Amino acid sequence: MHERYDDMYEACVRYYVHDETMDSIARHLKLSRSSVSRLLAEARNSGMVRISVEAPQGSLSPVAQSLSAIFGVRVHLATLGDSAPIALRFERVSKLAATLLRDGVNDGDNIGVAWGVTLSSMVPYLERRLLHDATIVQMNGGTNVHDTSARHVAAILQALSANFDARIVSFPVPAFFDYAETKEAMWRERSVKMVLNLQAKLDVALFGVGSIGARVPSYVYTAGFLDDSELTALKAEGVVGDVCTVLIREDGTYEDIALNQRASGLTPAELQRIPKRIGIVADPSRAPALLGALRAKTMTDLVCDDTTARALLDLYDSTDRRGR
After folding, report:
1. Contact 50, 98 (CB under 8 A)
2. Quick one: pLDDT at residue 204?
3. How far, in Å, CA of 318 to CA of 295, rounded?
4. pLDDT value at position 2?
5. CB of 14 closer than 8 Å to CB of 66
6. What phi, psi does 210 have (nearest 5°)?
7. What is the 3-state secondary structure (H, E, C) of the chain?
8. Which of 176, 179, 205, 269 has the most neighbouring CB atoms within 10 Å?
C-alpha cells in the first residue's frame, strides 16, 4: 500500500509539476502506461490532486458584475440559458458550489452547514479533500413534530464529514420551538451553549435560501415544520423565505417577525460575523427570497445560475424604481 502511494505521488509530481509524459513516467516507475493513467485518476479521486478553473473575483458576465456591485458579493454563475430544465439547473449550480466549497476550506476550519433541498442536491457532487482538524457544525435545528430523527440533516452532515475527514457537531433541537420561552431556556443549557459557541467561531458557512411558494418546494414550508395558520401569518407579515430557518422579507428585514423568536438558526446579523458565507440558489422563482437574503447581507459569495441571476437583477431594478 505504501509503495502504491509513493508511486502515485511521484507520478503526480512528474505529470502535473514537471510536465512529463505518461510514457516517460511509466519508464521511470517500471509500470505500464495504463497503470500510470490509473494512478493519476486515483490521485484525483482521493483528493491528492485537485484541479480547478477559477475566476478569483467570481464570474465576469455583466449580470454577475452588476450584482457584485449592488450587493458587495462575489457572484459565481452556472450558464445554462432560460430553457434549461430545473433539474439541470440544480445539477450545474450544485457542481459549481461543490467546487467553490472544496477550494474555500482549510485545515482547522469550523464549517457551518444549514440544510434544505439545495444542499441535499449538492451532496452527490462533493469533491473529496482531506482536511486536518476540521469540524462540520450544524447551524440550525432540523427536527419537527412529524420528524424527530432529521435524517435529511444527518445525510448532509455525514457526507461533508466523509468528504473532508472532519468531525461533526450536530444541533439536536427543533427547527422552530413551540414557545420562545422554551428556546430561551434551551439556550442556557451547557450542551446547547457548546454548539452556540462553535457557531460563533465559524470560518465558513454554507446554506441555501428557502422560499415560500418556490417552483421546487422548500423543506421548511412543505415538510411539517410550520402549520397552515403559521404559513398564513407569515404571508400576512410579508415573509418571502428564509436563511437557516430565520424568516426574511424581500426588503431584508427580519427582526420583528414574530416566529423568528422561536427559530433556531443563525440570524443574518450572526452570519455576518463569519468570514466566508456561501449562499446557493438554483431556482428563478426564489428571486424574492434571494433579494431579501442579499439585502440582509447574509452572504459573501452567491452561487446561482444565469436565469436566477437575471430574475434577481430584474426584481431589484423594479423595487428600486418603486422606491424612487
Report:
1. no
2. 98
3. 15
4. 63
5. no
6. -75, 155
7. CHHHHHHHHHHHHHHHHCCCCHHHHHHHHCCCHHHHHHHHHHHHHHCCCCCCCCCCCECCCHHHHHHHHHHCCEEEEECCCCCCCHHHHHHHHHHHHHHHHHHHCCCCCEEEECCCHHHHHHHHHCCCCCCCCCEEEECCCCEECCECCCHHHHHHHHHHHHHHCCEEECCCCECECCCHHHHHHHCCCHHHHHHHHHHCCCCEEEEECEECCCCCCCHHHHCCCCCHHHHHHHHHCCEEEEECCEEEECCCCCCCCHHHHCECCCCHHHHCCCCEEEEEECCHHHHHHHHHHHHCCCCCEEEEEHHHHHHHHHHHHHHHHHHC
8. 205
d(CA 171, CA 64): 35
Backbone torsion region of residue 150, taken as left when φ is above 0, otherwise alpha when ψ lies between -120 and 50, otherwise beta: left
Q: In this predicted structure, what is the pLDDT of residue 65?
A: 93
| pLDDT higher at 175 or 324 | 175
Q: Which three cell numbers stand for residue 28?
A: 521511470
Instruction: Compute the average pLDDT of residues 7-12.
Output: 89
Q: How far apart are CA 287 and CA 214, in angstroms?
A: 9
- Assess whether pLDDT exceeds 90 at residue 202: yes
Evaluate whether 96 touches 303 at the Cβ level (below 8 Å): yes
Residue of 158, 162, 187 whose CA lies nearest to 170: 158
Q: Please give the domain boundaries of the chain with CATH numbers for all domains.
A: 2-46 (1.10.10), 62-323 (3.40.50.1360)
Segment 220-243, tens digit of pLDDT: 998 889 999 999 999 999 999 999
Amino acid at 294: L
Cα(30)–Cα(11) distance, rounded to whole angstroms?
12
The answer to whether 129 touches 164, Cβ cutoff 8 Å, is yes
Q: What mean pLDDT comes out for the span 120-136?
A: 92
Mean pLDDT of 152-163: 94
The one-letter amino acid code at 84 reads: A
